[in-house]
């Protein structure tokens, strides 16, 4: 495993980090506690030192399992996210709450479930007015002062106003942003990277495999409760066809599979880390293996940027 620094925080993060949305939830398959623990142990064995969860994943269960698995003096980074009311669902959707009181209480509850100080506390999918709420930002910094949290950032989503929200988070002085970035979804990620790098912001990317499109199995027929069902079905079908005709040949010419190309593409940029969705030991091992310090040359990166422009034009055409 290779490591990078999270912006100006000084925190050393593994290039591949563990997305704990697969732990304690049914978001990406059937939850099994023993399997969850095995995934976390394997992640540690492979050199992953950064784990990202949220209070609403499994209504707190993801944090509890992660906290239990990491007890015993593991020197790791634990990121979590707050902004949804745990256990409160209306019409099948969790309810957001970014009031100062809720965020403070939610952070303290996450602290207790994890059993450790939170390395990075992120606002979870906040709208732009919340990102610009100075009173809320001060409350987050008070959590740092009180010892619950080390650093504060913003996890951007859903994918509607990401560019403006990301730029606002950078302008407001948050220490990191998390956003979607992959071969098929390069913007607004590349723009956010340029601005973030100028300000020494931690750049955390997610969804490197574009919801299974950039994988060998390419299974886009998800279970009813699978989080990836939120994807536009038409986009998935078009992305799959484009990947097989235009992107897969590049992977083959480089002697690698799509999973490896996808990870190496992201790590060819000045990101801090890429959060993976690994539901099996096999996936976890393969994804980590791609972070070997040998990334794509400039010509390949430019070729993939051109293909993204071509894919985007085909969607809009």
Task: Provide a descriptive summary of the structure in words.
With 317 residues, the protein is of the alpha/beta class. The chain has a single domain, classed as NADP-dependent oxidoreductase domain (TIM Barrel), CATH 3.20.20.100. It is built from eleven helices and twelve strands. An eight-stranded parallel β-barrel has the order 3-4-5-8-9-10-11-12, surrounded by six helices. Strands 1-2 form a two-stranded antiparallel ribbon. Strands 6-7 form a two-stranded antiparallel ribbon. A hairpin with a 2-residue loop joins β6 (84-90) and β7 (93-96). α6 (162-171) packs parallel to α7 (189-198).
How would you summarize the topology of this molecule?
Layout: E1 3-5, E2 12-14, E3 16-19, H1 33-45, E4 50-52, H2 61-69, E5 77-82, E6 84-90, E7 93-96, H3 100-114, E8 118-124, H4 128-131, H5 134-145, E9 149-155, H6 162-171, E10 176-180, H7 189-198, E11 202-206, H8 233-253, H9 258-267, E12 273-276, H10 281-289, H11 298-316
Parallel strand pairs: 3-4, 3-12, 4-5, 5-8, 8-9, 9-10, 10-11, 11-12
Antiparallel strand pairs: 1-2, 6-7
Q: In what range is the share of β-strand residues?
A: 15-25%
Class per helix and strand makeup: alpha/beta
End-to-end separation in angstroms reads 42 Å
With strands numbered from the N-terminus, the spatial order across the biggest sheet is: 3-4-5-8-9-10-11-12
Total DSSP helices:
11
CATH superfamily: NADP-dependent oxidoreductase domain
What features would you highlight for this structure?
317 residues, TIM Barrel, two-stranded antiparallel ribbon, 42% helix
């Amino acid at each position: 495993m290779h490591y990078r620094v999270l912006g100006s925080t000084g925190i050393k993060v593994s290039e591949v980090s563990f997305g704990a949305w697969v732990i304690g939830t049914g978001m990406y398959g059937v939850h099994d506690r023993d399997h969850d623990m095995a995934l976390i142990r394997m992640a540690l064995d492979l050199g992953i030192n950064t784990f990202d969860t949220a209070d609403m994943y499994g209504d707190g269960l993801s944090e509890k399992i992660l906290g239990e698995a990491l007890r015993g003096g593991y020197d790791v980074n634990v990121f979590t996210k707050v902004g949804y009311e745990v256990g409160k669902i209306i019409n099948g959707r969790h309810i957001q709450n970014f009031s100062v009181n809720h965020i403070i209480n939610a952070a303290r509850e996450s602290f207790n479930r994890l059993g450790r100080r939170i390395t990075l506390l992120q606002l979870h999918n906040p709208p732009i007015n919340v990102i610009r709420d100075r009173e809320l930002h001060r409350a987050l910094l008070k959590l740092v002062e009180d010892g619950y949290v080390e650093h504060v950032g913003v996890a951007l989503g859903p994918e509607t106003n990401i560019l403006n929200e990301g730029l606002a988070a950078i302008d407001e002085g948050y220490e990191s942003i998390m956003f979607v970035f992959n071969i098929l979804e390069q913007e607004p990620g590349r723009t956010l990277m340029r601005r973030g790098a100028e300000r020494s912001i931690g750049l955390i990317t997610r969804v490197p495999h574009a919801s299974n499109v950039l994988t060998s199995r390419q299974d886009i027929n998800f279970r009813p409760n699978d989080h990836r069902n939120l994807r536009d079905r038409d986009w998935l079908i078009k992305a799959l066809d484009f990947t097989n005709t235009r992107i897969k040949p590049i992977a083959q010419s480089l002697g690698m599979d799509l999973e490896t190309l996808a990870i190496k593409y992201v790590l060819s940029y000045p990101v801090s880390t890429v959060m993976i969705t690994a539901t099996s030991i096999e996936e976890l091992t393969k994804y980590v293996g791609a972070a070997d310090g040998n990334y794509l040359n400039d010509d390949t990166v430019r070729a993939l940027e051109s293909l993204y422009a071509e894919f985007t034009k085909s969607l809009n055409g």
